[in-house]
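Continuing the series of single-chain predictions for the mutant panel. This is the parent chain; the variants come on the following pages.
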Amino acid sequence: MSKLPKDHQFLDLSDYGRPVARVIARSLTDTACTPIHVTVGFIISGLIAIVSVIQGYYFAAAFFLILKSILDAADGELARLNNTPSYTGRYFDSISDIILNLLILLSIWAVTDTGLFFTILAFLGIQLQGTLYNYYYVILRNKANGDTTSRIFEDTTPKALEGEKQKNVSMLFWLYKKLYGVFDKAVYTLDYEASKSKKFPKWFMTALSTFGLGFQLLLISLMLVAGLKEIIIPFFIAYTIMVFIFIGIRRILFS
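Parent structure:
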């Protein structure tokens, strides 16, 4: 099930694992497996990838990074198929992502000559890229009557949905805000009028999807297996300039 109505669906370059994710989700619909279990699965896959990088098994690392991306899509697919959306799953997923992102870059730092400062800079860049993509994507979903589990402005603790506990939602939202708040504020400051804009065209969202986590992990995987591990961190630092280019395009063309 898509997060957008058919008329507004675009080619999401970060969502290449969706077809396999749907197969996995369908196979789990009548089982005791929940979306949270699938999220735990992608955490395990990400950790295996990190260990593989440190040990120098780059093909294995690439495999588990891509598997992580697939499972990252499968948990949401399973929630939609079972009609069990939850803020618990949404925030647990996001919190897991940001922690794994940092650990993945630290593992690359450990096997290259890149300095720790530049590694942290690349991490900040990756998170800023992903935040801009999610910001515009959530705005589009709200304008197009799509999935609304994610909110344009994550500024207040949401009310727990049926089947989840408010204390879990509150705790995870607090942690989410601690980890993502600075990136959300930065993106909002850079483009605070984006929610008032016209609906973003498909070509724009496809180009912007290069900021999606799935595409970022795919690029890391390809660079690892191609023997280009030394350029991974410099690449993501340099690519962050595209944040300002995309915001400029949005302001000029879709205000």
